[in-house]
Amino acid sequence: MTRELSKELATIKPWEEDSSRGYSQGLHSGTLFYFEDPDLKEIRIDDIAHALSNECRFGGHCNSFYSVAQHSLCVSKLIAGAGFSVEAQFQGLMHDATEAYVKDIPTGLKRAIGPAYRSLESNVWKAICTKYALEEELLEVVKWADREALKIEISSLFTTDQRRMFGDLGQEHIEMREYSSFSLGSHGAVRYAFLERFRDLNGRR
Fold first, then answer.
1. CATH at residue 104
2. Residue 139 pLDDT > 50
3. Measuring CA to CA, which residue among 27, 47, 25 is closest to residue 35?
C-alpha cells in the first residue's frame, strides 16, 4: 500500500458510524437506519418486505432457502385459518419485522451475545409498533402460530436425522403447505406476497 493511499484511508470515516445517533445500516431504499435512535420516517414497509424475503431462517442451515418473510406469511395464515381477528393476523405478519434491521439471529447466539442484542431488538420493535399501531406484547395466538410454523418448517426443511437436533419440535411430521408459502420460490414473489398481505390486512383493521 502506498503512503498516499494509506493517508487517504485513514481519513475515511466508516459510513455506518454517526457520533450523534450511534451506528447505522444502509437500507434498500437508500435510507440510513440508526439502531439506537430509530426514526419512524426511516421505517418503511418496502424495506421490511425486501429484507425479510432475503433473510434465510435457521441461520441458513436448512436444506433449502426459506425466508423470514415466508415464515411471517405462514404465521399470519395459520392465525387466519384458526379464525382469529385481522389484528391478530397483522401482528402475526409483522412479529419478526425487527429482523429486517437486526437480522434473524439463532436463539443460542442471541443468548451468547447477551442483553445488548435484546436491547437493540426491543428498541426497534417499539419503533415498529408505534409506526404501525401494533401492540408491543405478542398475542398468545401469535406465539402459538409462531411455534406451529416452526414445526412445519422443521418437518419440511430438514431430514429425519437432522430433525433430532430440535428435540420434541422435530418429532412431528406436518404437511401444511397451504400455510407454509413454500410455493413462493423467488425473492420477488415472496416480497410481493408479503406486501400484498400487509396492504390487505392493514386496510381492513
1. 1.10.3210.10
2. yes
3. 25
Separation in Å, CA 125 to CA 29, 72, 121, 122, 162 = 20, 15, 6, 5, 32
First CA to last CA distance, the chain: 59
CA distance 152 to 168: 13
Secondary structure class of 136 (helix, strand, coil): coil
CA 102, 106, 112 angle in degrees (round to 5)? 90
Is 81 within the bounds of a domain? yes
pTM of the model: 0.85
Q: Work out how many domains the chain is built from and give that number.
A: 1
Assign 43 a pLDDT band (cuts: 50, 70, 90): very high
**Domain assignment of residue 146, yes or no:** yes
- CA distance readout (Å), 63 to 57, 153, 168, 169, 173: 11, 11, 20, 17, 16
Percentage of the chain exceeding pLDDT 70: 83
Taking each helix axis as running N to C, give the angle between helix 68-81 and helix 187-203, from 0 to 180 degrees, rounded to the nearest 10. Answer: 40
Q: Is the pLDDT score of 6 beyond 70?
A: no
Q: Quick one: average pLDDT of 112-119?
A: 88
At residue 184, the 3 state secondary structure works out as: coil
